[in-house]
Design brief:
Layout: E1 9-10, E2 13-15, E3 19-20, E4 23-24, H1 26-29, E5 33-34, E6 40-41, E7 45-46, H2 53-73, E8 84-86
Antiparallel strand pairs: 1-7, 2-8, 3-4, 5-6
Length: 90
């Protein structure tokens, strides 16, 4: 599936990942991973499937909750340091 040039993509900002010393750090938000085939891997939301700001935020909340559950299961969860979401709109 090809994303048309004029369509919008969104990147979720899950706190505290893209922050350094409580200051937003764009290089930590946009972490593209090179793949062996020359492509790039990143997690983005396509407006076609998440059409409203409320939908974008709700997805980010579910993602943060899943990350917290995963941290808890691994014994890495820290009260007061849990992940939360911020909507970053293009």
């Amino acid at each position: 599936m090809t994303i048309p040039d004029l369509d919008s993509l969104f990147r979720h900002c899950i706190f505290p990942i893209p922050f350094k010393n409580k200051i937003f750090s764009p290089e930590k938000l946009i972490r593209l991973q090179d793949q062996e085939d020359g492509s790039l891997l990143a997690s983005l939301a396509w407006r076609k499937f998440i059409p409203t700001v409320a939908d974008i935020h709700a997805y980010g909340c579910r993602l943060a909750a899943h990350m917290n559950e995963s941290d808890l299961a691994k014994g890495k969860y820290k009260e007061g340091r849990q992940k939360s979401t911020q909507a970053l709109i293009n």
